[in-house]
Structures are given as C-alpha cells and as structure tokens.
Amino acid sequence: MDSAEHPVTRRISGREYALLALTVVLTVAFLAALAEGTARLIWPEEQRDTCEVWQNGTAHMHPNCQSIVKVAEGSWVVNRYNDCGYRSAAACGPKPPGSLRVAVLGTSVSRGYWIAYEDSFSGRLERTLSQQCRRPVEFQNLSIGAARGPVWHTAANRAPEAFRLGPSALVLVVTNYDLMLYMPPAPPGAHSAPAVGGFNLAFTVGRLRQEFLSDSRAATMAMHAAYTDEDRYLTFFLGHGDSADFLRSPFSPLWRYRLDLFEQTVATLSKLSQAAGVPLVILFSPGRPQVVLAHTKAAGHAGIDPFLFPRALGEIARRHGAVFADATATEDVAADPDHLFYLVDGHPTPAAHAYIAQALDAALVSQVPDFKDCNSGLADGAGAGPAASSRAVK
Amino acid sequence: MIVPSWEFLGFVLIGAAIFNLARNTRANQFILLAVNILFLASFAASPVLYLPFAGFVLFGFGVLVLLQSGRRAYLATWILLTLLLFCWLKKYSVVPQAFVLHWRYVTIGLSYIFFRVMSLVIDAGQGSLKEPVGFIDYLNYTLNFTCITAGPIQRYQDYKAPPVPLSVFVVGESARHIILGLFKVQIVSGALYLLLQRATNPATITAAFDNRLEHAAAEAAVYPVYLYFNFSGYTDFVIGCALLFGLVLPENFNRPFVSCNFIEFWSRWHMSLSGWLKTYVYNPLLMFLMRRVTVAALEPFLAVFAFFVTFFLVGAWHGQTSEFLFFGLLQGGGVSVNKLYQIAMGMILGRRSYKALGANPVYAAICRGVTFTWFGFTLIWFWSNWGDMGLTANRLGVAPIILGILVVIGVATCVLQGGIWLAAAVGRLAVRNTAIIDSRYFLVACATAMTVALLAVTVILNAPAPEIVYKAF
Fold it and tell me: Which of B33, B196, B300, B402 has the fewest Cβ atoms nearer than 10 Å?
C-alpha cells in the first residue's frame, strides 16, 4: 500500500458524496456492532439474581434457593441461600451448642456480590475464626443486594430478625456508595425528570448516555481498559463532584446530611443492640479511589483525604458505643491495589474481601467479648498477608 | 513537538489553512517559512541553543552562493568542510573530544538537513541546478518542518516541482496517508513495541530450551517488523501533511519484505536514503573506479566494492558508536556478498538459467525468508549494544541461536509467501473492472475503521505512541 497508486476520477457527484458519507456511517455502525458482539462473547454477564423477590419495598431471597450470576469483569458464581434466604453456608435455625454466630447486615459488598461465598469475608472468616476460636463460627448474612432506596432504614428494619438468630455480634457493613443513596427530599415544585408531555433534551441525552454505558458490554470493556490507568481513573473519579466529595475536607452539606442520617440509623441499631445484649460492629469497606489514594497516589491531590470518611464513621460508631473496623487502613492492600476491585462495576474482588476479612477479624477478636479467647491473626486462606492492622475503635 | 501526534496534526491543519488561504506564491513562501520556524522553535526555549544549528544552515547557504556564482574550483574542499562541520556538530566519535562543544544544543533533524545541504552543494558545484536558489527557498527546503524530524530525504530539484493545488482529491489523499501513518505508528508499532520489550528482555530468558529458542527467534524477527511500521507510518503521516502545503514528498518504503535479495531490499527500504547515497556516493564512486581500473575482468567487482562502501555508509550514518560501524559493515557486507553471489551464479549457471532459477517460486520464497532474516539479524547491532548482546548470547547458547535463525528463515519464508498470495487474491477482487482495494468507498471505509481504532486507543488507553526510531538520527 506504500507506493500503490489508485485511480482518481476528477469529479465526484453529489450522489457519490452521499454514498461516501453513508460508507462512513455504516463502517462505524459495523465496527460498533462487531465490538459489542465480541465483547459480549468474551465477557458474558448475568446480573439478575433469580432468587431475589421484592416485598413492600424490601428485597428478600427465596429460602433454599440457588442462582448463577456473573458480572462482565468477573467469573460465573453460584449463589446459595439457606432456609431463611440468607447467603450463608449454615442453616439459620437455633445456634448449635458451643458455636459462635455473627449476623451481618448491609448491601451488595456485604453480600459478596459477584464472588463465591467461600471468597467473601463471611466465608473466609467462618473458616479462620473457627480455627482461631477452636469452635465452630458461622456467619448469617442477612444483607440485601439491590439497593432501591435508603438501605440503612431497611438494615435497621432487619435488626430484630438478626437478633433472633442469637448472634455474638451484629456487623453492619457500610460503603460510601450506600450513603450516596441518601438524597434530601426535593423542594416543592422541583422536577428532575421532564414534565409529562414535555421534552427535556439534556435529560434525555443524559439518560441515554447512562443507559448506553450500563448496557453496552463494549463500553464496559473500554472503560475497564481506561480505568487500568490509576491516574486517569482518579482524575475521572475526582471530577465527579458529589460522588467524590466524601474525600474532600470539609464535607459538603449533602455529605453532612448523609452522615447525619447514617448516625440516626446507627443510633437506632445501637439501642436495639444494647437491648439485645449484642455488640454492634460497623465495618467500613472502601472503594477503589480510597485504596489508591491511601496507598499509592496520596501525594498530588490537594484537599483530598482518603481517611476523612472512615474517620467520620468511626466517630459516629464511638458516639454510639459501636465497634468500628476500617479496611482502608489494612496496609497489605497496598501490595496490589489494582486487583482489588472490578474496575467498572466497582465491587470488591475476592482479594479485597481477604483484606475486609482481616479488618473484621481484628475488630472481633480485640473488641467483642465472645471472641476474646480466640487467637488474633488469620490463618492461611483468609487474608493475603500478615496480621491485620485495622483500626478498631470503641 | 512530537511527530506524529495529534498536537502536530493540529499544528499542520492550522498552518495549512493559513497557507491555502493565501493565493500569492510569495506570501505562501513566507507563511511556510513561518510555519517551519515555529515548528523548530518548539524544541527549545532559548535562541542560544539554536546557534550551532543556525550556523550550519547559514554555512551551507554561504557555500551555495559561492558555488552558484561560478567559483567551483574548490568543490571537493567545500564538500569535505560541510561533512566535517556536520560530524563536529553531531559529536561523532572520530572528532577529538577537545574540539567538541560540551553543551547541549538543538540538533533535531541535523542529519536530514545535512543531506539536503550536501546535495545542494554538490549539484551547484556540478552545475546541475537549473536556477539560482534564493534564501527563502533555501530555508524552506532545508528546514521543511514536515520532513525535518526523520526525512524522507528529498533533492532540491524534486522539492521545486510545481506545487499540487489543493482539491478534494488532494485532501482525501492527504487524509489517507495521515490516517494510515497514525494507525501504523500508534496501533501496530505500539503493539509490536510491547511485544518487543518482552521478547528482548534478557531477564526473561530461562534455562528451558524452548524458551531460549523462542527468544533467539524473537530477537531477529520482531524488530524489523516493528521498525517497518514505526518508520513507514511516520513517513506516510508526513507525506500526508506535506500534501496539504502542496508539497510532494518521496515514498520511503515499497513493500520491502517482498524482496528476494538484499540489494533489492535496499531499493525498497528507506528508499530516499539509499537513493541519495546511490546518486551522490555509489554512482560517482563507480564511475571513478571504472575510469581508473581498465581491466575488463575486474569490472563486475568494482560494483561489489562500490556497493560495500555505499551500504557501509548507510549503516554507519545511523549512529556514533562502534555498534553502528559494525551495522554498516554488515549492510555493506550483505549487499556486496549478494552481488558476488549473483556474479558467481551467473558464471556457474549462465545468465538464462540463473534468471530461471530466480523466477522459481520456491527459490524466490526461500530467498525472501533469508533476506528478511539477514536484515533482522543485522538490526541487532542497530538497537542493542555489545554488553546486552554478550549477555543475551551467553544466556541463549549457540544451539538455540542457530536453530532460532533457521526457524525465522522458515517462518518468514512461509508467512511472506502467504502474504504475497493473499495480497494478490485481494487485488483480484473487482467490481466493474475496478479493484475493490482501489475503490474510493473501500478506502473511505478503511480510513474510517482506522480512525475509530485510533480514537479508541488514544481516548481509552491514553497510551503515548512509541517514539519514531529514526528521529534519533
């Protein structure tokens, strides 16, 4: 092709111009279809959990149900739910004599989205705490997955159900994404959606863009490739205003509002816990931006503090007598921050769950009376490194 | 400013828009000069850093004025002085350290300016320039921003060909070259660069025989392909950019890997360099030798010697170290042994039988594989150094190296022949007597696909394109 000459006719008609434009459009369309088809072949996805049912605005799982799910960036995973519809290996009946039980509340991270139960922090801690405590330790994971509204109200609503299981501790897993769902009520007359019968171009384009990005597997692959660059990912994330404001000091009014609502939920749960005589543990699971900022890219981002948000959560936990565990501070995370999260989906991978398990293990063993006699530190298979150095505050 | 890059392309488009808005030839010359100087100014902030560079350019013009005024008596002296000045500024190892300027100054494109200045000096000295070269023309020719970085090398007579008027076809042709060039550099050579880094890392050589064999083969096979896409991509890009200013730059590559021998290879690879050396070194040298040596039996061997000298210079020009001198020896040696082989085969088989042998597809395919492998092997002295070569050779061992070379010959023979068959088959596909690959619609579809790939890679991966290898010379 270097020296090949091609015949050039000295006139192009209007019809030819139109055909050339059509050629460009068709080529782009063909490439887009090819990219989408290839991406779907390489990265199949099944996000719908067939065991999930919705009642009165709350998600439940069919008891003794099994489903197969897969996020595009991950592997196929079999979800098994026990006789109460909890994602747990053990049955939810009366606690076997001599055993310890932990009840877990939370959302998708807590439930171990997109990873096998054995790889989730619950599954890992069942194994390791059983060794450390020299008696069976089981986790009853009451976490709901799909968040359609302020999840902490739902979590609080499930607390009585959790206490009926007779747990040694109630663990509430929280992420910054959970709190993002708290939005102040819209002022009267304000509409985020177009009026009926009207047409809002910006809204429609924005929604189409969002739907394209979430539905297109090629876009997922492209974003995955783009997000492998930590600097670019951080620039992108930090440019997102509200969703990144939990990293900025001082907190924005919206994040203060969210923390206030969260505190109300913790206060309610704490009162219930104290009444039931069950210690409450708040476990913070960080997202990729925090991990990257905390361990590899701390310098060069003025006004950004990756520990600001967990510090605020820790303060709330302390004010209400709850134990606080922060997986951000698990130093081993620094070893491989790029493989801890599904880059586009954002959920933690099995490797990250190992660090979350480390943080919770340290908190349980050091702060929860029933676990006082257990050896600290994780055995092989739970964590990915030396003993956890999480901050446990009471 | 990096060439090629999106930034450079933006610069070209703005420059070309202004250039084409001016309808006056004189104004066009000044606009082109301004664009050339602006481009050069992007390499250093202080004018002091340009002083040696400017000195060389002005010295060239001074010599040119002298020669054009009829004072041609000392042509050889002026040629030698130009050469010495170039070697001094490029800090070649032959220049004593005491004479070298020990401060950093701009040398971007100095080699390519040297070729242009030298050809002007020789042509003026021999009276082969049809008309006097004016100062603005001289500057625009020697400092031509589209090809100052890494060529292609163009003679003044070709540069002064009537400019191509801008039309939709010229813009289309320009876009085709630019997109193809960017695609070759950013996507293909970018991917090959990653492969190259893995393939040539001595740390990844293990004791396993298959690993060592794989490394030995990759050492010879990957770099020539990478270099081809890197350099020919750059050339395509700048040819497209120059077209927007009405300038037609020469092609540098003509499917070099289809060559069946090393002499043919050099007539298809970096053609502007080999063509320049053929005009200004090989032909004069051969003429000189033929005038001096009158023994008819020795005549064919004079060409062998002239080939050796010419292609030794081709290799040695690339750098200032002993590795490049050896690279030159391998180029000169390869071409002259190739010529000797042709002479010997002609004598043994007779011209007709040797020609018939050359036309044999199996023989031609094997020759192609050997040519590719030899070039890849010699290139090791181009991109590596004695220390790394010694380390790699020690780790690989003799047997994997020999077997690796044989593997490359075998694979190259098959792959190149397969490529030729495939290209021929695709070339035969036609609609209404027009080959599909020549069809305007096919070209537009290819350019669109390459643009989409380029944008995707640029936007998504944010990866910088690999450097143009020849920028360093």
Answer: B402
A2-53 pLDDT tens trace: 434 444 446 788 899 999 999 999 999 999 999 999 999 999 999 888 998 8
For residue B40, the distance in angstroms to the closest alpha carbon of chain A comes to 28
Residue of B nearest to A228 (CA): B461
Q: What are phi and psi of B95, to 5 degrees?
A: -85, 125
Residue B329 sits at the vertex; the CA angle it makes with B323 and B333, to the nearest 5 degrees, is 150
Gap from A31 CA to chain B (nearest CA, Å):
7
In this structure, what token pair is assigned to residue B433? 């007597």
Of B252, B434, B441, the CB nearest to A20: B441
**Which chain B residue has its CA at the smallest distance from A10's CA?**
B169
Strands B430-431, B434-435: pairing kind: antiparallel
- Chain B CB contacts of A2 under 8 Å are 232, 236, 251-255
Question: How confident is the model over B181-237, as pLDDT tens digits?
Answer: 999 999 999 889 888 888 888 888 888 888 899 888 998 899 999 999 999 999 999
What 3 state SS string does A296-350 have?
A: CCCCCCCCECCCHHHHHHHHHHHHCCCEEEEHHHCHHHHHCHHHCECCCCCCECH
Chain A nearest-CA residue for B229: A2
Instruction: Give dist(CA A353, CA A114) in Å, integer.
Output: 11
Q: Do A2 and B232 count as a contact with CB atoms less than 8 A apart?
A: yes
Determine the pLDDT at residue B249: 96
- Can you tell me the distance from the alpha carbon of A40 to that of A219, in angstroms, rounded to the nearest whole number? 11
ipTM confidence: 0.78
Residue A239 vs residues A149, A345, B116, B264: alpha-carbon distances, Å? 25, 18, 50, 56
Closest by alpha carbon to A20, among B123, B439, B225, B328?
A: B439
Do A226 and B236 make contact, defined as CB atoms within 8 angstroms?
no
Asked if the Cβ–Cβ distance from A6 to B445 is below 8 Å, we say no
Q: At what angle are helices B299-316 and B283-292 packed, to 10 degrees? A: 150
For B188, phi then psi, to 5°, come to -70, -55
Q: How far is B449 from chain A (nearest CA, A)?
A: 7
Q: How far apart are CA B359 and CA B11, in angstroms?
A: 48
List the single best residue of B454, B459, B462 to mutate versus A (max A Cβ within 10 A): B462
- Asked if B430 has any chain A CB less than 8 Å from its own CB, the reply is no
Chain A residues 221-250 within an 8 A CB cutoff of chain B = 222-223, 225-226, 229, 232
Q: Are B227 and B249 in contact (CB under 8 A)?
A: no
**Which amino acid would we find at residue A385?**
G
Can you give the pLDDT of all 394 residues of chain A as single tens digits?
A: 343 444 444 678 889 999 999 999 999 999 999 999 999 999 999 988 899 887 776 778 899 999 999 999 999 999 999 999 999 989 998 989 999 999 999 888 998 999 999 999 999 999 999 999 999 999 999 987 554 555 566 667 788 999 999 999 999 999 998 888 777 776 655 555 555 455 677 777 777 777 777 788 998 998 898 888 888 888 888 887 888 999 998 999 999 999 999 999 999 999 999 999 999 999 999 998 888 888 766 666 778 888 999 999 999 999 999 999 998 876 565 566 778 999 999 999 999 999 999 999 999 999 999 998 887 655 444 443 333 333 333 3
Q: What would you report as the CA-atom Rg of chain A, rounded to the nearest whole angstrom?
A: 24
User: From the CA of A297, how many Å to the nearest CA of chain B?
Assistant: 18
| Token pair for B301 | 């061997």
Q: Rounded CA gap, A324 and A104, in Å? A: 14
A&B contacts, CB < 8 Å: 56
A2·B444 Cβ contact <8 A:
no
